[in-house]
Design brief:
This protein has five helices and 21 strands. It is globular. It is an alpha+beta fold and 322 residues long. The longest helix is centred in the first third of the chain and has 25 residues.
Length: 322
């Protein structure tokens, strides 16, 4: 009997298993996630005080079904004008206002919209809504008396970069300090775009429009497999990215340096199960993180220990997020 044959067979099986594991790790970007986590440990003490610092968060509202919304809730933003949350519904198109506990306060139908996916509060009852299929950003005003919106005549900006039918702009966030919009493109390719000059355009005043791409300088691409939302956190200046497919919230500095990560997986951070389809992300003035998951699930995460930026009393108006 040739004893080398079984050894060759065992070796071939082992090689095949390593190949399968390697391909799986590459597809899910597991190794990149591990490397990101390692990088965040180097300055953990600093960012625990000066960053959002996601490891300190715990779910206090875990997958609450929002009564009055049955499907298609997407995008999320905190309005300092009302101290409430706003989301968009893409079928039928509408804006919905929510309390910090996930209670539906009102619905506002949108005429002229086909597929609204993201919303961000700017200031003075002004919001920006993204249309995924049309690759457009619309400026709208929503006050306490608003009962319907018609975006057909609303000021807007079209951005046809990497245009595809249904893999467009999923999230949008207003950076008040920089006077610019951050936009998340879902995939193919996955991008974070920055639009400067948008407020001047819609105000019909002299403007300098500039569109650039935000990237982390230490990586050729983001390690998540898609982007479903994002928010600029004004008190720290950091950016939070949300990935539905990877089920992660990730924190970067605006320069692209890794800070922290929050897996929204079953058994992690107080979650009874994985967040099934995370589509909206916002941060409140006291540091609470809100996540919205299609079709209508609401999550709120609280920080175990208040951060310095909460303790020094940053005004709510500085936290205009999506």
């Amino acid at each position: 009997m040739n004893i080398c044959a079984p050894r060759r067979l065992i070796g071939a099986i082992a090689l095949l298993l390593l190949l399968v594991v390697g391909v799986g790790a590459w597809q899910t970007k597991t190794l990149a996630l591990a490397w990101f986590w390692v990088q965040t440990r180097a300055e953990a003490e600093h960012w625990r005080e000066h960053g959002v610092w996601l490891p300190d968060y715990w779910a206090v509202v875990d997958g609450l079904s929002i009564e009055g919304i049955s499907d298609n809730a997407s995008g999320l933003t905190w309005s300092s004008a009302t101290n409430t949350l706003f989301t968009v519904i893409n079928g039928p198109p509408a804006v919905a206002e929510l309390s910090a506990d996930g209670v539906l306060l009102r619905k506002i139908p949108i005429e002229g919209a086909r597929d609204p996916e993201g919303i961000t509060y700017v200031r003075d009852n002004v919001f920006v809504i993204t249309e995924e299929r049309d690759h457009k950003l619309y400026k709208v005003t929503i006050d306490n008396d608003t009962t319907h919106l018609d975006i057909r005549e609303a000021p807007h900006l079209g951005i046809s970069i990497d245009r595809s039918r249904n893999l467009g702009y999923e999230g949008v966030s207003w950076d008040d300090a920089g006077g610019r919009l951050f936009i998340a493109k879902e995939k193919s390719p996955m991008r974070v775009l920055i639009v400067s000059g948008f407020p001047d355009i819609v105000a019909d005043s002299p403007f300098q429009l500039r569109i650039s791409e935000w990237k982390s300088p230490g990586a050729s691409t983001l390690f998540m497999t898609d982007l479903s939302s994002l928010t600029v956190h004004e008190p720290t200046g950091n950016i939070l990215l949300l990935s539905d497919e990877s089920a992660l919230i990730v924190e970067y500095t605006v320069e692209g340096k890794p800070v922290s990560v929050l897996p929204i997986w079953r058994g992690r951070h107080g979650l009874s199960r994985r967040v099934p389809q995370a589509e909206g992300l916002a941060v409140g003035p006291n540091g609470d993180i809100f996540v919205l998951s299609e079709p209508n699930l609401f999550y709120r995460f609280e920080r175990k220990h208040p951060a310095r930026w909460v303790q020094i009393g940053k005004p709510a108006s500085s936290d205009n997020v999506e």
